[in-house]
């Protein structure tokens, strides 16, 4: 069977692996699994997005599916459209999220607006390999252009925050859209919330002339300096398809994704009347867990991956969840990473509690070392079993890979889903402990592999 889906849909270089032919055939397979339709399609600003969208749409229509074309909108705007329109049976997003401009991707959305499960993705791969029969000429589908899906999404986001409180706070933000899918929606959000916004990289441009679309610190130096220059209350940055959001504090400090999740969890624990539970993964820093407990909540940890987090939130009735990469899910809106709502809620945090940096300074400090070590695919489970034996006297968690919890920190070994390597995370309050332990696990893996 063709293995096409990675952790975030099908990805590849446009006109390389991700060709028109592959896209068209994938469109047919999606129709077979997510049909009968209508199926909604949307795209980011990439140079190749028009081409891939056309090819996938042709495949869908050849199977008799009606295509709702939302144009260029963020991934969560597409997901919101699929969720609220009961007759729509699925969605397709053309994006490679944070990857360099030559890449593109196809991401599939279930009828309820959530990311497709591995089972659905396997079914699409299976259908791709079969000789699917197209419909007769008089049943071929058509494309309906849908206007206003981005605006409808933003209206829904505005309805989920205390907009009056935000308007009264008279805030200034600097917003970096990375020339990606948020260029129309997030500036509109600022306008609707009555927030003064300085917008960076606000033109749609698939060459990403401002910086690459991954919202990591080295790409956000202009955002950091602009926050300081204009004296803004907050800096906001999205990735290419705006399902994720990271922040810069009022003093111009870059806040990694786990800090954003910590602050938004605190806001949620303090304002929710329901269950005070946060869902995240085994890889999340204890810093966030401590902050959640301090705010009166609890943290539940799952395997890595936002669909896993979302499913657990649904099962447990948890109001918020997410990962340390800026992908945050809010149960009162939709069960997917929601870049615009994360932005709106952090603005609400600033409106309620004042200086973001002051609250960041109050968070507990941990040192987390992330590294990777080579390991052949077929020896990964052997290595994990040997390490579990070696550390049997410690607390072991096998939710995802192997997590060993010591009295003064933890180590997580996670097999990469795409490469022959382990990712190793080592965390402790003591930087020396974190560093030494990371090194000793690299050596452990090497010695087990001989
Ligand atoms: Mg993304």
What would your notes on this structure say?
This protein has 450 residues and is of the alpha/beta class. It is 38% helix and 23% strand. It is built from 15 helices and 21 strands. The protein has helices spanning 20-34, 49-62, 75-84, 118-129, 149-158, 163-169, 185-192, 221-230, 257-271, 286-294, 306-316, 339-353, 356-361, 380-390, 431-449; strands at residues 10-13, 39-43, 67-72, 90-94, 103-109, 143-145, 172-176, 196-200, 234-238, 245-248, 254-255, 277-281, 298-302, 320-322, 328-330, 334-337, 367-374, 395-397, 402-406, 409-415, 421-428. Strands 1-5-4-2-3-6 form a six-stranded mixed β-sheet, with helices on both faces. It is globular. 52% of the residues are buried. The model has no long low-confidence stretch (mean pLDDT 96). Bound molecules: magnesium ion. Magnesium ion (MG) binds at residues 97-98, 239, 241, 243-244. Residues 97-98, 239, 241, 243-244 line the site of magnesium ion (MG).
Give the SSE layout.
Elements (H helix, E strand, L loop, with lengths): L9 E4 L6 H15 L4 E5 L5 H14 L4 E6 L2 H10 L5 E5 L8 E7 L8 H12 L13 E3 L3 H10 L4 H7 L2 E5 L8 H8 L3 E5 L20 H10 L3 E5 L6 E4 L5 E2 L1 H15 L5 E5 L4 H9 L3 E5 L3 H11 L3 E3 L5 E3 L3 E4 L1 H15 L2 H6 L5 E8 L5 H11 L4 E3 L4 E5 L2 E7 L5 E8 L2 H19 L1
Parallel strand pairs: 2-3, 2-4, 3-6, 7-8, 7-9, 12-13, 12-14
Antiparallel strand pairs: 1-5, 4-5, 9-10, 10-11, 14-15, 15-16, 17-21, 18-19, 19-20, 20-21
Helix pairs in contact: 1-2, 1-4, 3-5, 5-7, 6-12, 9-10, 9-12
This protein binds magnesium ion.
The site of magnesium ion (MG) has 6 residues, from loops.
């Amino acid at each position: 069977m063709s293995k096409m889906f990675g952790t975030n849909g099908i990805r590849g270089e446009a006109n390389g692996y991700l060709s028109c032919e592959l896209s068209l055939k994938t469109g047919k397979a999606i129709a077979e699994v997510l049909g009968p339709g209508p199926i909604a399609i949307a795209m980011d600003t990439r140079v190749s997005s028009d081409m891939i969208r056309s090819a996938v749409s042709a495949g869908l229509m050849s199977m008799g599916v009606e295509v709702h074309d939302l144009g260029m909108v963020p991934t969560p705007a597409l997901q919101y459209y699929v969720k609220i329109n009961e007759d729509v049976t699925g969605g397709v997003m053309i994006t490679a999220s944070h990857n360099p401009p030559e890449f593109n991707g196809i991401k599939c959305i279930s009828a309820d607006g959530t990311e497709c499960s591995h089972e659905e993705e396997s079914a699409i791969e299976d259908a791709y390999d079969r000789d699917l029969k197209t419909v007769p000429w008089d049943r071929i589908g058509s494309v309906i252009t849908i206007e206003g899906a981005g605006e409808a999404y933003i209206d829904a986001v505005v309805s989920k925050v205390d907009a009056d409180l935000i308007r009264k706070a008279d805030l200034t933000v600097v917003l970096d859209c990375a020339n990606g899918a948020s260029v129309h929606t997030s500036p509109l959000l600022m306008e609707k919330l009555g927030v003064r916004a300085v917008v960076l990289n606000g033109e749609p441009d698939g060459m990403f002339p401002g910086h690459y679309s991954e919202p990591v610190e080295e790409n956000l130096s202009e955002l950091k300096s602009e926050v300081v220059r204009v004296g803004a209350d907050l800096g906001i940055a999205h990735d290419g398809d705006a399902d994720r959001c990271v922040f810069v504090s009022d003093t111009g400090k870059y806040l990694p994704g786990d800090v954003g999740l910590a602050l938004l969890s605190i806001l949620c624990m303090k304002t929710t009347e329901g269950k005070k539970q946060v869902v995240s993964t085994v890889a999340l820093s204890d810093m966030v867990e401590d902050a959640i407990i301090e705010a009166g909540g609890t943290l539940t940890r799952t395997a890595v991956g936002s669909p896993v987090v979302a499913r657990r939130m649904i099962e447990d009735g948890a109001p918020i969840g997410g990962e340390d990469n800026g992908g945050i899910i809010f149960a009162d809106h939709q069960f997917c990473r929601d870049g615009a709502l994360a932005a709106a809620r952090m603005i609400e945090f600033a409106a309620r509690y004042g200086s973001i940096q002051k609250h960041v300074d109050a968070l507990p400090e941990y040192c987390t070392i992330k590294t990777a070590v080579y390991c052949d695919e077929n020896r990964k489970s052997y290595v994990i079993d040997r390490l579990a034996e070696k550390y049997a006297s410690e607390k072991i968690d096998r939710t995802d890979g192997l997590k060993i919890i010591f009295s003064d920190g933890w180590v997580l070994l996670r097999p990469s889903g795409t490469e022959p390597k382990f990712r190793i995370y080592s965390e402790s309050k003591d930087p020396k402990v974190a560093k030494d332990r990371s090194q000793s696990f690299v050596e452990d893996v090497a010695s087990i592999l001989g």
